[in-house]
Write a structure and sequence with these properties.
Blueprint: E1 3-9, H1 17-29, E2 35-41, H2 53-56, E3 60-61, E4 67-68, H3 71-78, E5 89-91, H4 92-105, H5 115-131, E6 136-141, H6 151-164, E7 169-176, E8 179-180, E9 185-186, H7 189-200, E10 207-212, H8 218-228, E11 235-239, H9 247-253, H10 256-264, H11 274-285, E12 289-296, H12 306-318, E13 322-329, H13 330-333, H14 337-345, E14 348-351, H15 360-372, E15 377-380, H16 382-396, E16 400-402, E17 411-416, E18 419-421, E19 427-429, E20 441-449, H17 454-459, E21 463-470, E22 472-474, H18 479-485, E23 487-493, E24 499-504, E25 510-513, H19 528-543
Parallel strand pairs: 1-6, 1-7, 2-5, 2-6, 7-10, 10-11, 12-13, 12-14, 14-15, 15-25, 16-17
Antiparallel strand pairs: 3-4, 8-9, 17-22, 18-19, 20-21, 20-23, 23-24, 24-25
The protein binds glutamine.
Length: about 550
């Protein structure tokens, strides 16, 4: 039977609940336990697909095409043996949606539909379903205890704890122990209050994970245990680490994995964290560095590009260098020369995915520079579409655009493909209506890589599977024109024969892909495309060591 670890948060948000939960899961996996993870989000949106990255950070896309919370990205990066799916993230909105659908269908005929039991039953049903087939399912509840919004989730957890019993469920609560500089002390009171708040809704935590800026004293550990009714050894101290990937080891040093296994009666091997150790050793000790200019729209909020940041970090480790990311605001790049210097001083340029016209001119300026100066360029999704448009405009001389930015463009290099014939010759239609939720090409799809392409060399495979999240496609009518001018199509989607990737043949490293390779990058090993990109940046840096300005590092 699956055992459940519920993870709640207190005091303040943004304590890194997702990362901590993922670290616990990684630690359990290192003991050979089959672990999965699920995130419950208390907001009303049905999924985060239509939310701005400024609101919510990146939208993480699962293999089966769900648009999910970015915490699922951490879950996949920390776990090797468990892939996330649409069952691993649900919101209050989604719960209400399915309860309301049932109500309209008449499933509750005669009854009054209420939060308890109807909403809570639906939550419990989904939690149970998400854990099927695993030894342990970790369930992270978004928000902070005391929020009105998360109450139905908390109530479902309370009921499940009673139903499952002590040996099948565990409640882990993450809190903050702030350091008050003027008093020179760490304060345990917020943690005490947060646990009190939990108890008031019938939840007594079994484990406390105390986040803090500085190390917490043993005295404070004892004090927290005493005031919160939690065993002393179950008060886990988690001061800020240099890297999030050290957290599994930090938790292991305090024997959190032993405690969980004893509680659940699981006989397992001891944890083998040697691969994490090897990864963090390289990460924290890399001496050389390269700088990648990331030209995007949401540069003030690095969470908006979380998976790309992580993929670059992983690729750095794979190449034994530190990768610095110089974020460049694409819109400001259009007018500010100083920002163009940032691009010029970088060892490589990356344009990530994005929606809407704002900033596209700046992005194309950066692409132009990379293309004409032999600077390694990686384009992702919109970063590919703009690379194609830039090339068509400046090399071929077409008045090219995407219909996303100009509906009536003369040369629609990028456009909505609403109809196509599938491999069985059947006409498929993609809806192109005003409902912006779920009308995109989403999730993992197979692509075939062209025989003598660099991309195929990099992946060392003729077919790949990568995740998508976009509405527009490269227009097949322009394939010959582009190829004749030197932009090679290096991959096509297996099903619809849509363009998946392009590359420049007479450039040291210029590759742009319609899919999102960042979603599948793993710390332990990296991703072939990012590894190769960073390698190209190292090479570029070595070759151009003398022509950089002294401000090259950002
Ligand atoms: N806006 C583009 C599209 O919808 C690109 C999307 C993206 O970069 N994820 O096709």
């Amino acid at each position: 039977m699956t055992k459940f670890i519920f993870v709640t948060g207190g005091v303040v948000s943004s304590l890194g609940k997702g990362i901590t939960a993922a670290s616990v899961a990684a630690l359990l996996e290192a003991r050979g336990i089959k672990v999965t993870m699920t995130k419950l989000d208390p907001y009303i949106n049905v999924d985060p697909g239509t939310m701005s990255p400024f609101q919510h950070g990146e939208v993480f896309v699962t293999e089966d095409g769900a648009e999910t919370d970015l915490d699922l990205g951490y879950y996949e990066r920390f776990l090797r043996h468990s892939k996330m799916s649409k069952n691993n993230n649900f919101t209050s909105g989604k719960i209400y949606q399915s309860v309301l659908e049932k109500e309209r269908r008449g499933d509750y005929l005669g009854g009054t539909v209420q939060v308890i039991p109807h909403i809570t039953d639906e939550i419990k049903r989904r939690i149970h379903a998400s854990g099927e087939g695993y030894d342990i399912a970790m369930i992270e509840i978004g928000g902070t205890v005391g929020d009105i919004e998360s109450l139905p989730f908390m109530e479902a957890v309370r009921q499940m704890r009673v139903e499952l019993g002590h040996s099948q469920s565990l409640l882990m609560h993450l809190t903050l122990v702030p350091y008050i500089a003027s008093a020179g002390e760490s304060k345990t009171k917020p943690t005490q209050h947060s646990v009190k708040e939990l108890r008031s809704i019938g939840l007594q935590p079994d484990v406390l994970i105390c986040r803090s800026e500085y190390p917490i004293s043993e005295d404070n550990r004892r004090k927290i245990a005493l005031f919160t009714n939690v065993e002393e050894r179950a008060v886990i101290l988690c001061p800020d680490a240099q890297s999030i990937y050290q957290i599994p080891s930090i938790l292991h040093e305090q024997q959190l994995d032993d405690l969980i296994c004893q509680r659940f009666g699981l006989q397992t091997n001891t944890a083998d964290l040697s691969d994490w150790q090897a990864f963090t050793d390289v990460l924290l000790n890399a001496e050389d560095s390269v700088t990648v200019a990331m030209v995007g729209k949401y540069v003030e909020l690095p969470d908006a590009y979380k998976s790309i940041n992580e993929a670059l970090l992983h690729a750095g480790v794979a190449n034994h260098v530190k990768v610095n990311i110089a974020y460049v605001d694409a819109e400001r790049l259009e007018t500010e020369n100083a920002l163009m210097d940032v691009v010029k001083n970088a060892d490589a340029v990356l344009v990530p995915g994005g929606f809407g016209e704002r900033g596209t001119v700046g992005k194309m300026q950066a692409i132009s520079y990379a293309r004409t100066h032999g600077v390694p360029y990686l384009g992702i999704c919109l970063g590919m579409q703009l690379a194609v448009i830039e090339f068509a405009r400046n090399v071929i001389g077409l008045e090219a655009n995407s219909t996303e930015f100009d509906k009536r463009t003369k040369e629609p290099l990028i456009a909505l493909i609403t109809e196509w014939f599938d491999e069985k010759g059947e006409l498929q239609v993609r809806s192109d209506d005003s409902d912006l939720g779920g009308t995109m090409r989403l999730g993992a799809q197979k692509a075939e890589l062209v025989e003598d392409s660099r991309l195929r060399q990099i992946y060392a495979s003729p077919t790949i599977s990568e995740r998508h999240r976009h509405r527009y496609e490269m227009n097949g009518r322009y394939i010959d024109t582009l190829q004749d001018a030197g932009m090679k199509i290096s991959g096509y989607s297996a099903k619809q024969h849509l363009v998946e990737a392009v590359e420049l043949t007479d450039h040291p490293w210029f590759i742009a892909v319609q899919f999102h390779p960042e979603f599948t990058s793993q710390p332990r090993g990296g991703h072939p495309l990012f590894n190769s990109f960073v390698q190209a940046a190292i090479h570029h840096k070595a070759q151009h060591a003398n022509d950089k300005q002294p401000t090259a590092e950002h």
